Amino acid sequence: MEIIESFPFPVNTNLQKQGPTVSTAMLDGNSVIMIQLRTAGAQVPETVFCLKNLRNLDIMNMNFVNGVVPDALSNLQSLFGLSIKNSLISKITDKLASLINLQSLTIDNCGLTQMPNLSGLKKLNTLSLPNNHVSKIEGLYNVSQLFLYHNDFTEVPTQTIPSTLVRIYMNYNPIKYFPNVNLYANLTEVRLARTEVSVIPSNINKLKRLSFLDLSFSKITTIPDNIRKLTGLQFLVIQGNQFSAEEVNKIKSQFSTEQPSVQLLI
Prior knowledge:
The chain is mainly beta. The chain has helices at about 1-5, 245-260, and strands spanning about 25-30, 30-35, 55-60, 70, 80-85, 90, 105-110, 125-130, 145, 165-170, 190, 210-215, 235, 265.
């Protein structure tokens, strides 16, 4: 309490009064275990990194000193979730990877151009970096969900255990190639709309669990026959590509005959 009372803005401890402009903290006894910093335009107090029992840190519409997420972040070894939104960041400390208990990481609309190596985050399950300018991520281990839309990636980031990946959201990236499907056997949802993808791999039928595929507004001219072997497929979104009128009619006819349960948008 002494730490949060030292902040240059009020922090509410009544969770019933949470709001988009209200900074709020949750306590467990005398320890702060969750804090939402929502004081728009204010600087993030560096003393927040002294809250060593913090499990969730959520920052929105605030600024870091010199635009840097500092080394002091490594003090938060109990952190499960870290979220930073609408906060200009020029650099994130390499010590981010020391947060060995981190399960969820979100950095949204922060002008970010690069990420530190994440190889120390063995428990990281969800990585969300939308609306930035990131083109490369290193050190992914067993992430199951990647939310990376509106960035500068030219390929889907690889990870040590690719079979754990379940969802990919990478719309609005200059991706040219569909991922090597043999490595991502457990994918259920793929969103690669408005990319540079021109070819759907012929072995896409290996994705036995795939239920949602969005490749709309890309550069695809034809689809492989094996796509109709995806027995779990429920939604196929491929409008805005470079299909001929003849190809469109062929696709519609084949799906209406062989997979009428698939919601086809073309």
